[in-house]
TrEMBL record:
Family: Belongs to the metallo-dependent hydrolases superfamily.
Name of this chain's protein: Predicted metal-dependent hydrolase, TIM-barrel fold
SUPFAM superfamilies on file: Metallo-dependent hydrolases
InterPro entries: Amidohydro-rel (IPR006680), Metal_Hydrolase (IPR032466), Metallo-dep_Lactonases (IPR052350)
Residue ranges of domain Amidohydrolase-related in the record: 4-295
UniProt keywords, alphabetically: Hydrolase
Top-rank taxon, per record: Bacteria
Coiled-coil parts of chain: none
Length: 299
């Protein structure tokens, strides 16, 4: 099966500054200890991890590069693409509530590989702490003013936020229907307690009611536990039921998810879980939806 990996990263720590990977003090991280990621990760490493799988395209998603030089990340990734053929397209870093937002988005809109941006909105640590209207959140007028510029430059928006903020995401999608949103990492259903998963499912279904939203099934690891298809089956199937295969993309999130599983384990798990779907539907989720949503045929 051909794969378009809808979410992966590269970094060269000998050349570039990624604060979370380069600074001595680690940040809080959902998988716990991430010291194994503090090494350069380049296309040769990715291809070795992908192994026998035929990756025919990939989406590079910003990797929290030096926030003072967002275009520097795009320039470096473009050079990687030119020499290795990967990635196919780029989701770049942007800060929607910063004064230079319009200038940065204008440069991205003119770049042949950039398809969209990611700016993680402010989020609460737990569902009980979630409040609407916080500064830096999807409700923030300054943040929304930057978001409103995306459609003018033909840019999509990769949204990484936990499921307890998907009500705000639903309002965002409805208020800006011309902007394509791609929900990252399945809405982060990190707590597999039955009650928590029920609330995640309800929030996901509300967001899926917006036709301008797609989802990437990825990032399903649990800290300290092996990635197993049987543990993730219900999450995967419920996500597909909410969005349909035409708005679902499978992704590795490598090398980040190498902390919880091998590339082979993750994609064999997706393969096993989706055996009941038609080949057309499986081709959509593994390849064609990613190509379409990220406009990989455009140059």
């Amino acid at each position: 099966m051909q794969i378009v990996d809808a979410h992966q990263h590269f970094w060269d720590l000998a050349r570039n500054y990624h604060p979370w990977l380069c600074d001595a003090e680690p940040i809080p991280f959902r998988y716990g200890d991430y010291s194994a990621l503090r090494r350069s990760y380049l296309p040769a490493d990715y291809r070795a991890d992908a192994g026998r799988f035929e990756v025919v395209g990939s989406v590079y998603v910003e990797a929290e590069f030096d926030p003072g030089d967002p275009m520097g990340e795009v320039d470096w990734v473009t050079a990687v693409h030119d020499t290795s053929g990967l990635p196919s397209v780029i989701v770049a870093q942007a800060w929607l509530d910063r004064a230079d937002c319009g200038e940065v988005l204008g440069a991205y809109g003119a770049h042949p590989l950039v398809r969209g941006i990611r700016h993680k909105p402010r989020a609460a640590a737990t569902p009980d702490q979630a409040r609407r209207g916080a500064e830096g959140s999807m409700d923030d007028p300054a943040w929304r003013a930057g978001y409103a510029l995306l459609s003018a430059y033909g840019l999509s928006f990769d949204l990484q936020t936990p499921w307890w903020h998907l009500e705000a995401a639903t309002d965002l999608a409805r208020d800006f229907p011309q902007t394509q949103i791609i929900l990252n990492h399945t809405g982060l259903p990190s707590d597999h307690d039955r009650a928590a998963l029920h609330r995640w499912q309800e929030a996901l279904q509300r967001l899926a009611s917006c036709p301008n939203v797609a989802v990437k099934i990825s990032g399903l690891g649990q800290p300290g536990q092996p990635w197993r298809a049987e543990d993730n089956r219900d999450i995967v199937l419920e996500t597909i039921a909410a969005f349909s295969p035409e708005r679902v993309m499978f992704a590795s999130n490598f090398p980040v998810d190498s902390l919880v599983a091998r590339f082979e384990t993750i994609f064999e798990g997706f393969d096993t879980i989706t055996r009941g779907f038609s080949e057309t539907e499986r081709s959509a989720m593994f390849r064609d939806t990613g190509r379409r949503i990220y406009r990989m045929e455009e140059r």
